Amino acid sequence: MKKLLIFTSLCLAFSVAQAKTLYVDNSTGNDSTSYEANSSSNPWASLGRAAWGSTSLTNPNTGQAARAGDVVIVRSGSYNVSSGTGERYIPVYNPANSGTSGNPIVFRAEGNVVLSSSTNTIGEPLIGTYGKSHIVWDGFILDERNINTKADTGPVVIWSSNNVTIQNLTVRGITSSWNDNHNAIRIEQSRDSLVRNNTLYGTRNAGRNRNGSSIMLYYSNNITIENNDISDSSGGIFVKGANGGPMTIRYNYLHNIDAEGIAIGGLGTASEQYGGEIYQNIVRDSSAGITFIGYDSVSPANVDVVNNTFYNCSNGGLFFKPSTNGYRDLVFANNIIVGNTRGIQAEDISDLSSMTYRNNLYSGNGVTSRVNYSNYSFSSWQSSFNKDTVGSISSDPAFANTTANTLTLSSSSPAINAGVDILNLQGRGTGASINLGAHITSNDVIGVTGTLPEPPAPSTVPPSPAVLY
């Protein structure tokens, strides 16, 4: 057995050592080049050659395609593909191989790399994964006006996959002719994946509702969505189908959204300890900040909405609909809810017993809350429902700047150290004080950032739930 283990270890070490940097250049490359001969001076001409191991989508060659540990550098240029899968869940550039833990296959744009398709099929995503694991797509530009998509999909799809990272993309969407799901990035039946630092705009469906969200999730677990800039779309981020969790949505800047910045539908159940953590996001100049949709009697459940800023939303900062008994263990703490028509819009529900509100700041809203068709001021909201009675305030937050995604606090702001760090965001314990709103320090980056560490291995251990003091 010892000899077998040593032999296996040597084989793994040899496999990792053989990982290559591969090159694609459509101005100088040659797809006849073998995998072994590919180099900086001897690149392939097409991205398909790197992903499929051949020039035929329907006849892939795993031995000639990018392998675990390989980095595929795609040089500047416009890359069009005429082959299509015709399936809404299978991307054109679905890799022939998977990576492994610690050795993903990375497809990375060098400079401006624009991907398009001119397929004659009925439409499909362009990049992503179907049935693959440990894949990274990094830095590409996609313009859906030049991509053949169809209803219930989008340019980027992760389906039946795990440990996939989608980062640094720019995706310009379209207003679709269909009133169905239409997304820039869609994740379905997948787990342990990361969507970060992408700029997504212009994605709408015909109805201009949340089904046209830039990012949509179905039946997935342990997904992190962070540092994205999402704008000018029907919806921002929609956790739609029956997702068990945990989900982490953080550091996103969502603005000028027709519906809401974040929508939470099927997430968590009454029997699960973890649903999701939504923190340090800014949603502004949209219809709603965050919407909770009670599809059934068990979800959304076990979701913490902490240290977010909801600014100038016409239908409410926090929005709840419709009338079901599905809301379970929802925590709203340390949020700044300012300049909205209603701070809390809960017109269609009457039972708030499973929701905790504390250490929030309300200011400049038409009314603090509207519950079961009645309006409530800050004081009557507190007295009528026993909510926001601990640490919450009604006061001007004294923003230092209200332009773009800043909404930082001035030194005189009453929001400074007015919260309790129930998610331990600053590492000083869950009972420590913390600023209210998305900016808890002067160094926070909300939205895209120019510097990113290598993708961490997503944890399979759910985060600790909020500890309420």
From TrEMBL:
Domain of life, per lineage: Bacteria
Keyword DNA damage in record: no
Signal peptide bounds: 1-19
Protein's recorded name: Right handed beta helix domain-containing protein
Record organism: Candidatus Thiodiazotropha endolucinida
Keywords: Signal
UniProt xrefs under Gene3D superfamilies: Single-stranded right-handed beta-helix, Pectin lyase-like (2.160.20.10)
Record-annotated Right handed beta helix domain positions: 156-319
